[in-house]
Amino acid sequence: MAATAAPGRADPRRIYAEHMSAQPGIDRGHTDDLMSFLRASPSPYHAVASAAERLEKAGFRRVEETAPWDGAAGGRFVLRGGAIIAWYVPEGAEAATPYRIVGAHTDSPNLRVKPIPDTGAHGWRQIAVEIYGGALLNTWLDRDLGLSGRITLRDGSHHLVTVDRPLMRVPQLAVHLDRSVNTDGLKLDKQRHMTPVWGLGGVEEGDLVRFVAEETGVAAEEIAGWDLMAHSVEPPAHLGRDRELIAGPRMDNLVSVHAGTAALIAAATQQELPYIPVLAAFDHEENGSQSDTGADGPLLGTVLERSVFARGGAYEERARALAGTVCLSSDTGHAVHPNYAERHEPGHHPRPNGGPILKVNVNQRYATDGAGRAVFAAACERAGVPWQSFVSHNSMPCGTTIGPITAARHGIATVDIGIAILSMHSARELCGAQDPRLLAMALHAFLGA
C-alpha cells in the first residue's frame, strides 16, 4: 500500500511522478522546485526540515529514535540534527529484503559563528566566525549575508533561526590599498580578513544572542547554545540567454538531497518494490563526516538494523539484507571549466546538461567499481537519461565523498555519482538546468527498479 498525502494538500507523489515520467529536458517545474528548496534551506537544519515537510505531505511519518518501531508497511523518517534518514517499506517486505540507498549530505562550506561572537574594532561592530569546510574564501567577500541555523534552549528544545535579509558583509580591501591584488593574486588570512561587519559602535557582550532571540521570538536568557552560520541572501536564479543554467548557493550538495527526496517519494507510489528505498542525507561531509550525524557515524547502520528487527528479523536477516544492498552516493562533481580545461582529465570532460556523472577513482577516493558502473548504467537506461564519466587529472589530488565511508563502515556496495557543476565550494555555484531533474529521474529508476 502506497503512502497517502494529507487531505487538502497538493500531493507531491503525483507531482514528482509527473516530473519523472516526462521526457528528458528542462522541466521548469522541477528546477523551480529545486530553487525553492535551496532558498528554504540556508543551513543543514533547514535542509532536513524542508525534506521532512515534503515527506510528511507524501504520507511519511517521523519516528523517534527513543521510541519502539513497528515493521508495518509505509514511509518513515528519522531526524537528528542536520541529518535525515527516510525509508519506505512496501507491502510484503520480508526481514531480509535488501535496501536501495541514495546517500547525500546537507552541509556546505561557509562561515560559522564562534562561541563568543561579539567582536569589532575601530568603531565597527563585527561577528566572530570560524571557517567551515573548504570554502572558496574570496566568494564570501562583498556579498550580502544573512544568518541561519538553530538555537538550543535551556529545556533542550531546538528552534530554527532564519534571518534572510542583508545583515552582514565581509568587505574586501580597496584596490587603492592593495595595488598588487590583480597581478599577485588575492591573499586572505582566515583569522584576520574574514570577520563580517554588521554595524557601527562599540562591542557589546551578548549583542548577537539578544538579536537572535528577538528574531526567533524567545527570551535571550533561555538560549543555552547555538549553531549559527552565514548564508548568501541572493536567491537562486536561471542564468544565460536561454535560461539553460542555474546559479545558486549550496548546490553542493542540496541538489542531491532534493533529487533524492523527490525520487523516494515517487518510488513510494509503486505497488511492488523488490527493495526498500532509502534516503540518507548526512551532515558534516565537508569536514570528514566524523560525527553522530555524519556518514562515518552509526546513524545509518542503526536505522537499517532496527528496520530489519522491526520486521521480525535478527542478525542473520540483517546480514542478508545488507549483503544485497546498494548505495548510490550522490554528490556534485566538476564540470569541465572552459577557462581551465587543462586542469581536467583530457578524456573525461563532463558537460552541463549532459546528464549525471559516474565518479571513479581507483585509489578509493570514490567507491565506484565495474559492478557499480553496471548498476548505475542500468538505472540511467531505465530512466532514459544520458550519463557521463568523471575521473580526476593524474596530477590533481582527487576529492572524496561519503561513498567510501559508507562502503567501508557498513559493507555496502556503493557507487559514486552526482551532477557536474562549476564553482564548487563557492558561495554561489553553477549547474545545467536539465541536470537536477535528470539526476532525480536516474535516482527514481534506481530506487524503484
Describe, in plain words, how this protein is organized in 3D.
The two termini are 17 Å apart. The protein has eleven helices and 20 strands. The chain has helices at residues 12-21, 28-39, 44-57, 181-184, 207-216, 251-267, 299-310, 315-323, 370-383, 402-410, 435-448, and strands at 61-62, 74-80, 83-89, 99-105, 110-121, 124-132, 145-153, 158-168, 197-200, 223-232, 237-239, 245-248, 276-282, 326-330, 333-334, 357-359, 388-390, 413-418, 420-422, 429-432. Helices cover 28% and strands 26% of the residues. The chain folds into two domains: 12-108 and 249-448, 3-Layer(aba) Sandwich (Aminopeptidase), CATH 3.40.630; 110-232, Aminopeptidase i, Domain 2. A hairpin with a 5-residue loop joins strand 11 and strand 12. Residues 1-9 have low confidence and may be disordered. With 449 residues, the protein is of the alpha/beta class.
What are the salient characteristics of this protein?
alpha/beta; single chain; 449 residues; Aminopeptidase; 9-stranded mixed β-sheet; 11 helices; Aminopeptidase i, Domain 2; globular; 20 strands; disordered N terminus; 5-stranded mixed β-sheet
